Amino acid sequence: MTCNGGHDRLTSWREREASLYRVFPFGGLTLGTLLALVAPAPHHLGALPTLAIAVAAGCWVAWFVTLHPGWQSRRTLMAVYYAGLLAFAAALVAASPWYGFFAWVGYIHAFPVLPGRWRVAGVVTTAILVATSQGGGLSVVTSRLPLWLLLVLFNLVVAGSASWFAMVAEQEDAKRKRLVEELGETNRQLTETVRENAGLHAQLLTQAREAGVLEERQRMAREIHDTLAQGLTGIITQLEAAEQSRDRSADWRRHVDNALALARESLTEARRSVQAVRPEPLETARLPDALVELGGRWSALNGVRADVATTGTPRPLHPEVEVTLLRAAQEALSNVARHAAASRVGLTLSYMADVVTLDVRDDGAGFDLTDQPLPREPGGGYGLTAMRQRVTRVGGELAVESEPGSGTAISASVPALPGGAG
Known about the structure:
422 residues, transmembrane, rod-shaped, Heat Shock Protein 90, 5 strands, kinase, Oxygen sensor histidine kinase NreB, 69% helix, alpha+beta, EC 2.7.13.3
């Protein structure tokens, strides 16, 4: 509010200054004419010639200032006007000293119409004319030269001081105008930046939302594969085995019980996956113990020996790292059950300084890596792809070695990021 009030006052003052700029010449001319007629000075030119010059001077000012105010910005034309103004002022001062009131207008008009150093010339010329009128006319130059010079010096000092303050004020006003323009430009740029940032923010929100949806879809795809898909595969395998052992009551019951246990376990893991909760084995045990439990259950279901070993010093890892290694072990064992026809599987969890490695080796059929390159599993399924995605997601690497008839070795190496055991 203060800034707006100051701007309004400055604008009001500029309007009054413009009005005085147009009015002063006619006031000085009228006053000088009245005094010249009422109290004529000695050696005056005469009433009629003086009036003629005064009317001509008034018309000159009216044409350039009153009737054409827009001409003030045309420097060359205004220089012509100012030269004519001084010429009329000199003629009138020579006709009657009372026209010093009109000559004084030269001080006022020098700054609006003259550029730079030409203002100094206009002020000096005006000071000479005003000093001559104050001394009583042209006779003072010849008869009382020291007095005239003193008057000229006095007017120069007064006019110079006033001109200096006027120049300083003009410079400050120019700086203020530039500052206002710069602030306006800065405000415009800031407004544009805010508008662009708003659009960019909306775009980033959209991208983040889309990325979040995609990430959640990928997470659910991995979890479904690691829980429901593997569980359903195990259930189908057990039910097929039960169908084949229908005549053997004990074997049939064992396979059906295994299928029911797998179904319950898969349902529990599915619920935990939807809620983004750690797998149940890691909630109740450390990673090495969870792998031992996993190997025992898998061996009991598939009738294949599974040896689990741990090297190094076990320590709590980041939950995401432990989940990745557990899921990798589950997927590797699932692949062995479906494709390898192995008689033995070995799982080794190795704790090292910077990495933790899970190695899963079997003595099964193996496959040719040149015919079936990574990341797809031998059967063309999603298993190795999901495993690779999980391991890469935590900054690890997955390696697979296999040859037909020589078994398969899978190695998942992940950073040993510290964390609490869940």
